Amino acid sequence: MNPAPPEVNPVASARHTVLVVEDDPSIRTLLTSALHAAGYAVVSAGTGQEALAGRARSGPDLIVLDVMLPDTDGFTVTRELRARGIYTPVLFLTARTDVEDRIIGLSSGGDDYVTKPFHVQEVLLRVRAILRRSAGPRAAPPAERPPLRYADLTLDEEAHDVHRAGQRVPLSPTEFRLLACLIAQPGRVLEKQQILQKVWNHDFAGDTRIVDTYIKNLRRKIDRTEPPLIHTVRGVGYCLRLPRDRTA
Question: What is 148-240's CATH number?
Fold first, then answer.
């Protein structure tokens, strides 16, 4: 874990608080110092329970979360946050390097993944990228953007809000970006690699199974109401459209 001098980015970081959850005191100190030096406000915790309590107290903009904690694991902490309706972005830190572990972590509601040993600058770059993606249209000039609509589905980028058949659908930041990618081009089949680049901005070592996992999660929320709108085109990718016997 090379403590390279962090690049200060006051425009991106001055408004953001990061919660660091790491049971190793030396790593926790390293991350806290680097994030402070980069301009972020930082709070820290050493266990999963402290993390859940810390989220309630500090309301951070992002959580840097170790997977292996003394009382639980980071995946369980993230699932608990999502079950509470808390969709703060999560960056996992872990010594696990298997693709399956990455998929489990990201499908539990995480937004990105850094493996140990890590370079501090990589963590800072991932933090900045997640916060930029999560801010999305809030970082844009205040020109009025009309909500995106398809059938009975509405996605409001300005309010970061989604409704289906008049009912609000709570989505994580990554799920929101994925749905925005689909609803922006209704009827068009998007390849999995295209979705990776648009939603995650990098390819997770080329493994597209994370797209399949997130589509499954998104369907569970969006397609609880008939008719189903998210469709698989086998061997190609996914699209947002009404069933073939209907029209938008």
Answer: 1.10.10.10
Q: Interior CA angle at 104 toward 107 and 220, to 5°?
A: 30
The pLDDT tens digits of the residues spanning 80-116 come to: 988 888 889 999 998 866 666 667 777 777 888 888 8
- Cα separation, 90 vs 240, whole angstroms: 27
The whole-angstrom separation of Cα 89 and Cα 16 is 12
Hunting for tokens 């797209």 — which residue is that? 211
Surface-to-core class of residue 41, CB atoms within 10 Å of its CB (0-12 exposed, 13-18 middle, 19+ buried): middle
The superfamily in CATH containing domain 10-138 is: Response regulator (3.40.50.2300)
Rounded mean pLDDT, 186-191: 95
Whether the model pTM is above 0.70: no
CA-based nearest residue to 64, from 1, 144, 127, 152: 127
